[in-house]
Amino acid sequence: MVKLVATLGTSPGGVFETYMNLKSGNYGGEPVDIKEVYIIRTSDKAVELAWKLVKAIFVCCGSKEVEIADIPLPINDIATKEDYEIFRKGLQGKISKGDYVDFTGGRKAMSVAAAINAIRNSAYVVTTIIPQNEYNRIQNLIKQLKEEEIEEAGKGKCINKEKFCELVSKDARTILLT
Amino acid sequence: MVKLVATLGTSPGGVFETYMNLKSGNYGGEPVDIKEVYIIRTSDKAVELAWKLVKAIFVCCGSKEVEIADIPLPINDIATKEDYEIFRKGLQGKISKGDYVDFTGGRKAMSVAAAINAIRNSAYVVTTIIPQNEYNRIQNLIKQLKEEEIEEAGKGKCINKEKFCELVSKDARTILLT
Description:
alpha/beta, homodimer
């Protein structure tokens, strides 16, 4: 069973678009039947919020077949070698042969750690580019969301499909690196 | 002969600090005798400026033994699969076994491409973290530099040692990833 494993930072952007583009083959390869999505992230407050948005987007705009799993690691950032080691170890056993690893979100050292793990486990490495104007549009929409809306949506119940699906970019391009 | 190969973005920060920390063994490993530094970058104007600053910093604050080579690629950003391919191909043949690859600067896809190339060629992967307050201090100093000063310094002549060496952070931490 093929998984999508994605790093996440303070913005939800990218992972749902990657999932959709892989499913539809809109990345220059064959359509990929992804049944599970792992989100690997720090425990920073802003990142926690981004996770809730990702969850809401998947629940509101994705298919019901996909499972989405949250993997928060006990660090708030990667500022030291120790932080990096915790992140690297947190990746262990998560990425299998044939999985897709999306490094779009999070700190650069997280992205590189995930890509290295992917290469070593014969997984594919992908990223999704969201045009700047689309990114700005989405960031503005996020600012307008109420905290309760995000909290509710983050519990896995779609409370406003239209609103949350507007956070998805139709112009996102997914690139297969390896 | 061991090289340091670094990606570069719009800020010069990181690569000189990585070089110094590798030279002195201040990264948790043995001191590394680096004789050559390759800077891999796009041809964007702001990145061009960052290259001139890097050159000035090495000339003013480094030892005379190190050679620094500029490798500008014919793209301004990584916005498409084609851009990525040009970047990836630009890396080919640049990274050898035992080299050190610093992915601190530039777009995330550039960092990941460089790290993947490093892994495949049995090179080491490093990054340098500059504390936020130091980063801000340096950015402010850069804004105060005159264009002519940067142009002159970028030609490889140290016109103001004190000024350019202030752009180096003493609190930068280099992490060896693999």
